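Reading a protein record of the kind used here takes little practice once its layout is understood. The fold follows as a row of integers, each naming the local backbone shape at the matching residue. With these conventions in mind, the following record can be read line by line:

_____
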Amino acid sequence: PQALSLAGTCKSFPQLTAPELEARKDNPLAMSLIKLHSSIFHPTLRKLQCQDVAIDTHNLMYPVFLVEADEAVQDIPSMPGVARYGINKLLAHLKPLVAKGLASILLFGVIDEMPKDATGSGADCATNPVIRALPLLRQAFPELLIACDVCLCPYTDHGHCGVLTVDGVIDNEPSIKRIAQIALAYAKAGAHIVAPSDMMDNRIHAIKGVLREHNLENRCSVLSYSVKFASGFYGPFRDAAKSAPAFGDRKCYQLPPGSKGIAKRAAKRDVEEGADMLMVKPGMAYLDIVKQVKDEYPELPLFIYQVSGEYSMLLNAGKIGAFDLKTVLWEVLVGMRRAGADCIITYFTPLLLDWLKE
């Protein structure tokens, strides 16, 4: 085929002679003919340069901690401004947020009175705070999208995310069976989304299977914590959810922070098993992974979790005057959207709802 000619495509630029073009080719310091200021001198022009980074209420998901005592409000010292709520207090807390446009929440159950055991039996019992809360939340806020975190660590006496062998290591098959049972219980109670965060192999397949068996596959989505790294940013969350491991760590099932390849394999595994949505966790340190996953699976909604350590770090830096919190937080969130995130799970959601109204 005839080669395309670029002649005349840069008529607005000064025409260079052949010797000038040759000299420019050999001089890496030569002045570029590409000019930027004319594209960003007006606010609307600047907005036109920021494609696919808008943040609206549907781009935010609010994580909340739910405890057994219905009237409880428990402040979390490592996460100023965040609390654990009993269901009655949570309903009151959410009401003005829903009025401001809150579109979705992510529920985490936290237990004090209920005994913890080796298989996390409290995760799906009738008195579990999440299972009790779901019908009430659905009734109070019929338009609110409700996701439930699915994991064993808040309910096991060992604090790990799966069932252990007698040697104290993860036993994958009974683990995914338990995870699927818990997901089914949440779906039956009214969850729109179940979000397994355990990082067991093949748990998406197991969850999809039990939802299908109970005719819930079309009424409950699966948001997979597909690419969840073994991160130091989780510290405040483990305080909030009372889910720190009693021994060892989670490096044998959460992903090593430096890996791109296993992150790609993790997302591929979950997509092949039927995940409806994917997630990268944590956020700021893993934007390259967000882009990698979004480029590979552009057809699936991608969530990013701005985790507890990121929240506390930004909030405390703003409080001591290191920077203006509003300016920096918007910058961080726009960066997440630019990398490819469709929805940001953030504890800043109540504050952001106010800012979006300004």
Remarks:
- The first helix runs from residue 18 to 25.
- Residues 1-13 have pLDDT under 50 and may be disordered.
- The chain has one domain: 54-357.
- DSSP finds twelve helices and ten strands in the chain.
